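= Paired protein data =
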Amino acid sequence: MTTKTSPAAATRRGAAAGGQRRATGRSLRSQVSILSILGRIMLAVWALAVIGPILWTFLASFKNTAEILDSPFTLPDHLRWENWARAWTKAHVARYFLNSVVVVGISTFGTMLLGSMAAYVLARYKFVGNRVIYFLFVSGLAFPVFLALVPLFYIVQNMGLLDSYVGLILVYIAYSLPFTVFFLSAFFKTLPNSVAEAAMIDGASHTRLFFRVMMPMAKPGLVSLTIFNIIGQWAQYLLPLVLIHSPDKQVLTVGIAAISVAAGFEADWSGLFAALSISILPMIIVYAIFQRQIQAGLTAGAVK
């Protein structure tokens, strides 16, 4: 027996189903909008928590000590650039700054050269022990720096490199290699094989293939990781504190700590905040200039 459905009943059921789908869609859109609003609120709170102390430090660098202590959250009466000049000369920030530039510049270059070569070989060539070497590199990410300070101190001392730039640079390179190899090996895997095969057919050696073909193709990832290594090594404190003892060879982070101790006795808080601003400003400028390259490098692997 066949039951016939009238056109009106079918229309009503269709309208009801359509209304239910629209209600479900509106409910999903409302949930997504609520999550989006909550996410933006959390991002705003996080941005305020990060930008607030930095902005307060820059404002305090233009105040005198009385203004910092009496009205810490107000604007300075006028811009006191002499605080920056005093920190640069009297507090020896210029010497610490130059030491940091030399150490970080050489160590970043060495990190990117050795890390990119190791990552390329581990990502593009198959050989016995490939995965073992890769996991040895990656295992370095699991150990915090302070756990290795004591053995690291004795290793550098036995090598005769204690209290020297060479010892600190080598430690910086070793400290930065695990993340560099981990990141770049994944990036090199996304590069097309056809280009490498064409270069090999044209007679390119493995060295020329790497430096002339693969490295230019991996430029977004290399730029992103270079900036990350510069920021991480620039802000490093424990390693230079343990390995460098001469005041003339101290890098900026350890020098700023020494200035903060002296400021507690001399009450030169404006000079201390000026020194902090000088140490922060280069990293802000570097990130502001290369932020597009950093974002492109982080997303290039996913897009490919």
In short: The first helix runs from residue 7 to 60. The mean pLDDT is 83. The two ends are 59 Å apart (CA to CA). DSSP finds 13 helices and no strands in the chain.
